[in-house]
Specification:
The chain has 10 helices and no strands. It is mainly alpha-helical.
Length: about 210
């Protein structure tokens, strides 16, 4: 592991100490490892990928009053302090700025492979068994209902509606998680997502079976 990556790992661990469990160091570590796994199947700049994966949630707007500039400021200051060259910094900041599900309509159409890889890794960590655990953890963190039979999912929400949404945790599957499989960019990402998607469908079947006891 080169020095800048090692230093970034240390920086992120310290910065995210005490973070909500779905967006903590372990989330970053999983996305980092998944990014490296997917990167092996693509022609890409591995340094940009590793730095982007490590810094992508350094200041998630959800936990900072919706501020989408804070992560960019923190990342730039850190990378400049590590003497990273400006081209690398620009590429990493581009990934951080455009990775989010809620920003998908605003992102440029022709995305660099480095963003596609880290985005796939981040989305993969939002589905499957880990995705289910993270979703319920965040729902509990926000004190949202797990499920309400009369509250239907809000599909096709605008970015602002999505940010303000306090729907049920089960509705979040339909509003985001079940959509992610078809948003994968890379062949490797699609392959990993397929299995996790199926697991979520099976979980929902079981959930409704247990909820609707006769």
């Amino acid at each position: 592991m080169n020095n800048i990556i090692q230093n970034t790992v240390q920086f992120v661990k310290e910065k995210l100490e005490g973070a909500e469990a779905g967006h903590d160091w372990f989330h970053i570590e999983r996305v980092w490892k998944l990014s490296k796994k997917i990167a092996q199947t693509e022609n890409c700049n591995i340094e940009v990928i590793e730095l982007s994966a490590l810094l992508h949630d350094i200041a998630d707007p959800k936990f900072h009053n919706g501020d989408e500039t804070l992560a960019l400021k923190i990342s730039r200051e850190f990378l400049e302090g590590q003497n990273a060259n400006e081209e690398i910094i620009q590429q990493v900041l581009f990934v951080i700025q455009n990775i989010s599900f809620k920003n998908r309509e605003e992102a440029p159409k022709d995305l660099p492979i480095e963003l596609k890889i880290v985005q796939d890794a981040d989305r993969i960590d939002a589905i499957g068994a880990i995705g289910i655990a993270r979703t319920f953890n965040f729902g509990g963190f926000k004190n949202n209902l797990m499920y309400h039979p009369e509250l239907k999912p809000q599909l096709n929400m605008s970015k602002e509606e999505y940010k303000k949404s306090n729907g049920t945790t089960i509705n979040h599957f339909y509003e985001k998680l079940l959509l992610l499989k078809n948003l994968m960019n890379t062949e490797e990402g699609k392959k990993i997502a397929e299995e996790r998607h199926t697991f979520m469908l099976n979980f929902l079947d079981q959930f409704y079976k247990e909820w609707n006891v006769d």
